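Example record

One chain of 182 residues, shown exactly as stored in the release files.
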Amino acid sequence: MTRRVELVPYNPDWPRIFTVMRRRILERCDGLVVDVEHIGSTSVPGLAAKDVVDLMPGLRAFDDGAKCVPAMESLGFVYKGEFGIPGRHYFNMDDPETGKRLHNCHMYAIGHDEWIAHLAFRDYLRGHADWRDRYEALKRHLAVRHRDDVEAYAEAKTDFVKQVVALSLAESGSDHSYRRIR
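Predicted structure tokens for this chain:
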């Protein structure tokens, strides 16, 4: 099913929604998930986004993700395997009544390149309002251009995201801080 791209203004409830789901994942995946990070546009204060809260559970080892599948499914997530990204366990959750996407969940071993990139991107936008605003302008443009194709919308943002990740890692001088287990 192709989903429609609809951006909404930043919602101050997104961090609370994340915190509730973070706690549930940590409880259900006890000992397997080390931490859960809030990623994506809903994790950046002031940034318009699709009304979908993205979560990134961190594992000690990739194989631990398969052991989390029953626990994640008990929370209402649907497991999609790596879903095109090697080293990822991908889950999503839709509202059973409306079909509206509620969560995307990208589970990685802590230190995976994508783990590092997601945190670098989020943290850079949180700390650089000018880049956050540039990203929002791009998202608004692409949301009109690709309103009926969320995959094309996401793909069209790739170059910008890569640029921000590179800036973030260069500014930090290292990606080491993103590799630690919290």
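Notes: The first strand starts at residue 7 and ends at 8.
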